[in-house]
Design a protein that fits this description.
By secondary structure, the chain is an alpha/beta fold. Helices cover 45% and strands 15% of the residues. α1 (16-27) crosses α6.
Length: 182
């Protein structure tokens, strides 16, 4: 069983990035479980004084992140960068050395998020996480509200594309896990 934790970089209740990840949960191929992390908005602001005695919300994030085989991140772009909530979550994870080389797939709902993708990639690489470019997925939902995006995400074509992207990601994770065993 491959376990993937999906994190939306948006704290909006009506987020196309979150809608995309909810669709990914439903599209997961057999042998893959995608869990959506929904605690981004409740994380306290990162404080290095609390890295040994984590606040409950940060401890829950750590439990979920360390319990998965790969991370799936879909984040909007705000002011040419990563939204504060997403960056805050990454700041909490920086010192978790067990994350080194954990595979990450980047999903996106806009063709115009290149600044955020680049900033996010820079942070992830600095944290020694392993971005899997062939597992990246973009579905153009820019300008759509989640209720408008839901029918687009529910189409057989969109579900199949998500399933394929998740299958590629799971395959990379499996190969990495197998290599560690030998």
């Amino acid at each position: 069983m491959i376990r993937i934790l999906a994190i939306s970089g948006s704290v909006r209740a009506a987020s196309t990035n979150t809608a995309l990840l909810r669709a990914a949960v439903k599209a997961a191929p057999e042998g893959v479980v995608v869990t959506l992390y929904e605690g981004l908005g409740s994380l306290p602001i990162f404080n290095p004084d609390h890295t040994e005695d984590l606040p409950p919300a940060a401890a829950e994030l750590r439990r979920l992140v360390l319990g998965c085989d790969g991370l799936l991140i879909s984040s909007p772009e705000y002011a040419h960068g990563v939204p504060g909530g997403m960056k805050n979550a990454l700041d909490w994870m920086v010192g978790w050395g067990e994350l080194a080389y954990r595979p990450v797939a980047l999903y996106n709902t806009s063709p115009y998020g290149e600044h955020a993708r680049a900033a996010l990639a820079e942070v992830l690489v600095t944290m020694s996480l392993s971005i899997v470019p062939e597992a990246a997925f973009t579905l153009h939902l820019r300008g759509s509200k989640p209720e408008e995006a839901a029918p687009k995400l529910a189409t057989a074509e969109a579900q199949e594309k998500l399933r394929n992207a998740l299958g590629i990601f799971a395959g990379v994770i499996y190969v990495q896990q197998t290599a560690k065993l030998t």
